[in-house]
Amino acid sequence: MTVHLPQIAILGAGSMGGAILAGLLSPEVEAEGIVVTNRTELKAAALRRDGVVSLATESDPDANATALRGARLVIVAVKPAMVPGLLGDIRDRLEPDAIVVSVAAGVTIATMEGLVGNVVFRAMPNTPSIVRLGVTGVAAGSRASEADAALVRTLFETVGAVIEVPESKIDALSTISGSGPAYVFYLIEQLTATARHLGFDEAQSRLMVEQTFRGASELLAVSDADPGELRRRVTSPNGTTQRAIGELEKAELTALFDRATAAALARAAEMARGE
């Protein structure tokens, strides 16, 4: 089914803005227009494809104003510290019915609503959005209507699943799904190192580990069983896997992930205070 979207501006098409753009360029999505901006011409040139208008602020000081002209959805994807200044610069250039969606960590709805008069949302996608398997948390501002929320939800459904949460939960969500891909990649790195220690070469180690993670995720996706049940099916009583799981249990991984996410949540609070 084809998804129809109004004109979109993406201000800052770095890793996250670029991930969203990749999803929007899928054949199933039809947008009335997409204009993206970056600071450098080098980055802007790399995105000029498939009908995307890509502008560089270093060569065109009015690039953001041009991108905003006619845009109904404005995705702010610059670094968090740059968001307040950018919103102050563009507030008089926004279309009256434009919806401003920030994907910057730590920048609150109150901060955004204090800088622009438009409807605002906070969103927290993750990088698997590039392959349309992302998870995006969305929190609506005080001026948003149900129709506004539906449009923003449709936007992010083009790159994966959407979870609508109150703003009080958006930073906590970020510590799970936002940072989560890094946790997975870190586990893959470490298990690959273990494979190397067992005498396998780099190619063999990567194949074993990466295909195992991918296969396990796909199996979970198509199964009616939860992860615990699938783990038990692999773990024969008194077998090799049970012995390995026993060692992992000694590491108290739940407590470890509790500490890791608490640290990420504390950093989000610091960023919200401008630290």
From TrEMBL:
SUPFAM superfamilies: 6-phosphogluconate dehydrogenase C-terminal domain-like (SSF48179), NAD(P)-binding Rossmann-fold domains (SSF51735). It is an enzyme of class 1 (oxidoreductase). Its EC number is 1.5.1.2. It holds the Pfam family F420_oxidored. Keywords: Amino-acid biosynthesis, Cytoplasm, NADP, Oxidoreductase, Proline biosynthesis. One of its GO terms (molecular function) is pyrroline-5-carboxylate reductase activity. It is found in: Cytoplasm. Its main location: cytoplasm. It comes from the Bacteria. The keyword Electron transport does not apply. Residues 7-106 form the Pyrroline-5-carboxylate reductase catalytic N-terminal domain. Pathway: Amino-acid biosynthesis; L-proline biosynthesis; L-proline from L-glutamate 5-semialdehyde: step 1/1. Residues 167-271 form the Pyrroline-5-carboxylate reductase dimerisation domain. The keyword S-adenosyl-L-methionine does not apply. InterPro entries: 6-PGluconate_DH-like_C_sf (IPR008927), NAD(P)-bd_dom_sf (IPR036291), P5C_Rdtase_cat_N (IPR028939), P5CR-like_CS (IPR053790), P5CR_dimer (IPR029036), Pyrroline-COOH_reductase (IPR000304). PROSITE patterns: P5CR. It catalyses: L-proline + NADP(+) = (S)-1-pyrroline-5-carboxylate + NADPH + 2 H(+); L-proline + NAD(+) = (S)-1-pyrroline-5-carboxylate + NADH + 2 H(+). Catalyzes the reduction of 1-pyrroline-5-carboxylate (PCA) to L-proline. Belongs to the pyrroline-5-carboxylate reductase family. This is Pyrroline-5-carboxylate reductase. It comes from Lysinimonas soli.
